[in-house]
Amino acid sequence: MSAPTRKRRWLTICAITASAGLVAIPAGAAPGGAGSPFGVRALARLAAEREHAVGAITPRATADNDGGNEADEIAEGADQYAEARTSPGVVAPGAYGAAWTSLRNLPATGGSWRNITDLPYNSDDSRYRDIDSNSSGGSGEVTGRMAAMAADDDGYVYAGSAGGGVWRSRRGGGHWKPISDKLPSQSTGALALDGAGRLWLGTGEATTNADAYLGSGVYVLSDPHHGTFSARSRVGGDELESTTIHELRFGGGRVWAATSEGVWSHSTKKLTGAWKLEFAPNPDYLPGGSKADDDSAAYKNIANDIAIDPKDPSKVVLAVGWRSGDDYNGFYTRSGGSWQRISSGFGDLPTDADNVGNVTFARSADGSRYYAIDQSPEQLNTNPDSGLEGIYVSKSGSPTGPWTKIADYQGLAAGGSALTSSGYMPGVQAWYNQFLTVDPANAEHVYAGLEEVNETKDGGSTWSTVGPYWNFGFSCWSIDPAKQTGGCNQTTHSDQHAVAIGSYHGKSFVYVGNDGGVYKRPVDGSQDASGHATDWTSLNDGTIDTLQYYSVGIGKDLDHGGVSVTGGLQDNGQSILRSNDTVMGSNFGGDGGDTLTDPANGCDMAEEYVYLAIQVTQNCAVNDGSWTTDASKVTSYQVAPADNATGEARFIAPLAADAKNSSTWIAGGRHVWVQTHGYAIRSGSEWTSVYDLGAGRTATAVAASGGKVYVGWCGPCNNQGFARGIAVGNADGTGWHDITLPVAGTVPNRYLSGFAVDPKNADHVFLAVNGFSRHWTEGPGAGVGHVFESTDGGTTWTDVSANLPDVPADSAVVTQNGGLAVATDLGVVYRAPGRTQWQRVGSLPAVAVLQLKLGPDGSTLYAATHGRGIYTIKVRDLR
Predict the structure, then answer these.
(1) Distance between CA atoms of residues 30 and 11, nearest Å
(2) Are the C-beta atoms of residues 15 and 77 closer than 8 Å to each other?
(3) What HEC string does 832-872 produce?
(4) What percentage of the chain exceeds 90 in pLDDT?
(5) At 79, is the pLDDT very low, low, confident or very high (cuts 50, 70, 90)?
(6) What does DSSP say about strands 737-739 and 752-757: parallel, antiparallel, or unpaired?
(7) What is the tens place of the pLDDT at every residue in 401-449?
(8) Is 409 exposed, middle or buried, given 0-12, 13-18 or 19+ CB atoms closer than 10 A?
(9) Per-residue pLDDT tens for 82-110?
């Protein structure tokens, strides 16, 4: 199957249970289901496959062997990201908060970080229109995922990112500044402006996707036009620490919070004092309850939204429920002093647990209308096309209804959607993609976000897809490099999460946040004959950098001098930044995993998609699209090893080049794969399996130097029987053996995330261990320590963690002078040559750093952060 455009859909079912960090219960533990539907699957590419036609190509959707629904693969990816931080058990709340405090108390090295990706990133860069690129899709300039938006009538716009904090614009969008960098959590769940003009921030992203982190509570900014958030601005006590917050709503002098641990409220006048727990359907599963340690606890009290009657604030409706289904799912209202499930009189809006999942409310400014989006667990489990139950209106203006259905997925598909193929239609990710808002000037003018942006101007009688998923497949589309997307207009990035309406210079705009950042258009904007908006503007101008990197690669830029920097991103492909660029381009599409770049030639690069689906290019994937009429002009190639086809590699699988020979590559799935053709590889058949880790095992980390190879593995990889190990051998296939690591030994029974080999001695190696120590982790063999050292080729190990904070370690690198840098979920630490104690490297916000690498000459350290782009620092300054 060819896969020129490889947009990845993130359907996950992770549940989160630790402070400021990501923790998941395995998919099979989700209540309300008949076991886990999420087994290991082969790579599926539900994307646009381009077929040769007369002088051009026409993209068409393709289905895989599971009917075109990627839910199982994506859910597995979510679990795997979380497993690394939780296995072999569950993590107690407060772990990340304690780690952040410890990290900030470390002495700091010299030097300071420099962000090198704080410039525009053009996903439609016409230089990179090779077969594996999404360029010409129409998203334009992008950044990382936006989870929340707010805007006022003075031109101020606030964007809350998934992992990079909150940003402010004073000019109706663009020219952004970060305003939450001092907080211990950079994960945003909700943003809301109250009637007094204060900005409220609920931390902890509530999209329950693969890389969503928990928060540290709710904060308020009294002067959002000029101030910044601080820890002192937290509302209440620590009641909402270690939760996610889906929505903040106001009514009756109180702010209401829909969280992963029920519905809470607090006075909006007196900000001290504890939050009040208004309703939790299963309080025994809350922290401190008799069932708090149950495997399903994180699923048992999920609240999605609160609807407050504008005419009578005492009338409140709660939307409560886990998206995959549970007996408690439903709508609740207060009756006789207690909360009761609504079972009748609601009209078309379902009230049964099977059909109430993720819900979003919105009301009109004049109080005449309430609207709702409802995702159905039953649809999610049985309908491969969509999980959307519908969009509804209450024309009484009361959240108690009666409600009338005004849209379903078939109706939205008919309104100009790009998602009209079986297996992927509007609302297929309604559990993940939802927003809803009403034009303040018109109660029948509504914007609804799912995978796409939908608009109705007549209360739901007709709908237009004003922001289609992409422009591939439309008759206006062309790959012509002289144009962004042929004759089509710019659209937004896909996967919608947030919306706000505000004014700038007297004109009203709608702002949408999605997996590609922030976009705006006039509230009463224009449309073409297909119903697509003609006036979207990307606000991702490079002053806002919330890019979520998994990896980074650096090589010499032979054409322009300096270096070329590339990296794999969540839902934003592979970025490439050459030394003379003022705008980054995207040369591979979809989700970007690990990255290899030839230090001697930055245009020799390999990008991993998922499950070891690897693409390689030797010209930076520069292409004007001529491959569409002449197949010989393709310059990137799919070279996946066999574990990709069998699904025996992790979602983001390890890939490395030998430190002494860039033509020898190591890839890890169930097998340890080696290929020796370097960037000249053209086929997956050129890989050789040099070692079988065994059935049920899969590689988590690989490294090689001078032909000696180290592999970390897990299997089982979740907290039901979690096991880990290390295999060592040679790239030529000789000498392979498993190191004996007892369940409760020097190296903890936790996820092994990275090796760093001493460039002067291949038997001298360091190991980075993820998760938390047994102080926080309740599971067999959790052990202590995060960094271990071996001087005998991995046979024995010594804990060298010393004063290192108890925080998940993700990557490590040995500097040329013998220092050791380690990437963690909260920043970077460094141990100087000859020292035993650790220092904090520079000052980064509380953001996960997933990979460290050195530049070609070893003088610069590069850090790939999952929420704030790529940073560099000079090694000589680490003293």
Answers:
(1) 14
(2) no
(3) CCCCCCCEECCCCCCCCEEEEEECCCCCEEEEEEECCCEEE
(4) 82
(5) low
(6) unpaired
(7) 999 999 999 999 999 999 999 999 999 999 999 999 999 999 999 999 9
(8) buried
(9) 788 888 987 887 888 899 999 999 999 99
Q: Which two tokens stand for residue 521?
A: 């258009």
User: Does the structure show a pLDDT above 80 at 608?
Assistant: yes
546 torsion bin: left (phi>0), alpha (psi -120 to 50), beta (else): alpha
The predicted pLDDT at position 76 comes to 59
Q: What is the arithmetic mean of pLDDT over 793-811?
A: 96
pLDDT of residue 47: 27
Task: Give 705-748 as a DSSP string.
Answer: ETTEEEEEEESS-SSSS--EEEEEEETTS-S-EEE---TTSSS-
| Biggest distance spanned by C-alpha atoms of the chain | 77
Cβ atoms 573, 550 nearer than 8 A: no
Cβ-contact 397, 310 below 8 angstroms: yes
Q: Is the pTM of this model over 0.85?
A: yes
Find where tokens 């995330």 sit. Answer: 753
C-alpha span between 652 and 71 (Å, rounded): 16
The CA-atom distances, in angstroms, between 682 and each of 414, 483, 618, 639 are 42, 31, 11, 6
- The full DSSP string for 8-68 is PP--------BTTB-----GGG-TTSSS-----------SEEEEE-SSSEEEEE---TTTT
* pLDDT computed for residue 560 by the predictor: 95
Which among 331, 286, 341 has a CA at the least distance from the CA of 277?
A: 286
Residue 88: cis peptide before it, omega within 30 degrees of 0 = yes
Q: Provide the token pair at 769.
A: 């261990």
In this prediction, residue 30 has a pLDDT band, given cuts at 50, 70 and 90, of: very low
**pLDDT tens readout for residues 566-602:** 999 999 999 999 999 999 999 999 889 999 999 999 9
Q: Is 42's pLDDT higher than 60?
A: no
Distance of CA 543 to the CA centre of its chain: 20
CB-based contacts of 614-619 (< 8 A; 24+ apart in sequence): 614/638, 614/639, 614/640, 614/641, 614/644, 614/655, 614/667, 615/132, 615/588, 615/639, 616/679, 616/681, 616/682, 617/130, 617/587, 617/679, 618/679, 618/680
Say how far apart CA 167 and CA 338 lie, in whole Å.
39
- Side-chain-side CA neighbours of residue 779 (13 Å): 29
Instruction: Note whether 825 and 85 are within 8 A (CB).
Output: yes
Res. 5: pLDDT tops 50: no
Q: What are the backbone angles phi and psi of residue 810, rounded to the nearest 5°?
A: -110, -30
Sign of the C-alpha dihedral computed for residues 105, 109, 112 and 116 taken in this order: negative
Beta-carbon neighbour count of residue 822 at 10 Å? 27
Question: What are the backbone dihedrals phi and psi of residue 807, each rounded to the nearest 5 degrees, phi first?
Answer: -145, 145
Main-chain dihedrals φ then ψ at residue 160, nearest 5 degrees:
-105, 120
The Cα–Cα gap between 188 and 815 comes to 35
For the segment 467-489, what is each residue's pLDDT rounded down to a tens digit?
Answer: 999 999 999 999 999 998 999 99
Strands 121-122 and 584-588: parallel
Rounded Cα–Cα distance for residues 300 and 701 (Å): 34
d(CA 356, CA 348): 12
